[in-house]
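Please decode residue identities from the backbone states below.
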């Protein structure tokens, strides 16, 4: 209503997260009562004046709103920076070397180097990771975190999640349960309109999942509390299940 009276458009994006309430888990959040959370509110508007109005409205919401709400200062209005990665021909780049007070600029003939040098014969192909295709009657469900480690990160608006089996004997069952479609279904609340592609790393008994359009724009342009997808591996391994024979279930519950 305030924007409308001043002839301003609505927000381009508005994001609310309850940090401490498993907001990143989305529909997979466990039901529990948190006695303390951090409410994180972020927004995007093309007009800085609109964001200044929004920032001023936060203080009254806390001082005159519901009880038991703390406040730690006015929000800051910042430009929403978006990065655009691109490929540049190597021949268009120059290398500058500074030795002491002398500065030397040289253009490296990349094309000549690429043409005259080879990297030898490629290594022989590695067999694909084993896949369990036996009967499912004797299988039990185990959290992925008990069978695998995870690590995740970002490249722009793309997140990749690495899953590494804790023991090679778990690999066929992880391969069977943690498929592209299974990960796409589990992460659809974060990977909105994007795709999921799985790559195998046979030498490591590992898988790499690449999720596009998964970070709300990625980098400093994202409104998410996890704009680099650093928590995505933990979301995956702590929530997804793997079916494997009961005699292979680890004796203790893994936490990391």
């Amino acid at each position: 209503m305030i924007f409308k009276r001043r002839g301003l458009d609505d927000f381009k994006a508005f994001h609310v997260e309850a940090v401490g309430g498993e907001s990143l888990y989305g529909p997979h959040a466990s039901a529990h009562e948190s006695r303390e959370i951090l409410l994180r509110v972020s927004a995007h508007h093309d007009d800085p004046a609109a964001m200044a109005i929004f920032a001023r409205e936060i203080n009254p919401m806390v001082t005159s709103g519901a009880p038991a709400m703390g406040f730690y200062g006015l929000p800051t209005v910042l430009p929403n920076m978006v990065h655009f990665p691109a490929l540049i021909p190597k021949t268009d780049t120059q290398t500058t070397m500074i030795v002491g007070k002398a500065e030397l600029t040289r253009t490296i003939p990349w094309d000549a180097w690429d043409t005259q040098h080879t990297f030898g014969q490629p290594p022989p192909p590695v067999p694909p990771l084993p896949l369990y295709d036996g009967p499912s009657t004797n299988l039990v469900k185990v959290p992925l975190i008990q069978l695998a480690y995870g690590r995740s990160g970002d490249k722009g608006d793309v997140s990749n999640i690495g899953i590494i089996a804790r023991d090679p004997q778990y690999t066929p069952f992880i391969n069977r349960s943690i498929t592209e479609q299974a990960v796409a279904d589990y992460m659809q609340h974060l990977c909105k309109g994007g795709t999921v592609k799985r790559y195998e790393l046979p030498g490591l008994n590992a898988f790499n999942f690449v999720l596009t359009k998964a970070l709300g724009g990625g980098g400093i342009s994202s409104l998410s509390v996890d704009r680099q997808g650093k928590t995505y591996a933990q979301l995956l391994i702590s929530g997804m299940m793997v079916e494997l024979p009961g005699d292979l279930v680890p004796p203790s519950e893994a936490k990391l």
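Observation: The first helix runs from residue 2 to 5.
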